[in-house]
Specification:
With 95 residues, the protein is of the alpha+beta class. The protein has one domain (2-93). The chain contains four helices and four strands. The longest helix has 21 residues, at 2-22. Residues 1-8 have low confidence and may be disordered.
Length: 95
């Protein structure tokens, strides 16, 4: 089933992404928080050959004006190709 397969890939990529960010392997710490570019993301996850790697961050982006993180929305878009991780991500991973 294609949908279930995509959901499994998404969960795996989300866990890999959040783990890498929390370990400091991906992203740059700034005054605004942890910032990641789409190019850094693609390079870090170069083992993923599908187009999903290009759509992951845009799909995980909170809508403009939203501040509440959800299980599927946990980054802010700062500018084209630049994303900031929601600060609550770090507290939730420790629980």
């Amino acid at each position: 089933m294609m949908c279930a397969e995509n959901e499994r890939v998404q969960a795996t990529l989300k866990i890999r992404f959040l783990t890498a960010v929390c370990k400091g392997e991906l992203g740059s710490v700034t005054d605004q928080g942890v910032v990641i570019t789409l190019d850094e993301f693609r390079t870090f996850f170069s083992d993923i050959t599908s187009g999903y790697v290009d759509s992951f961050l845009p799909a995980a982006t909170l809508e403009p004006g939203s501040t509440q993180m959800t299980p599927t929305k946990f980054v802010f878009r700062s500018q084209r190709g630049v994303y900031r991780v929601h600060p609550d991500v770090f507290g939730r991973l420790g629980k």
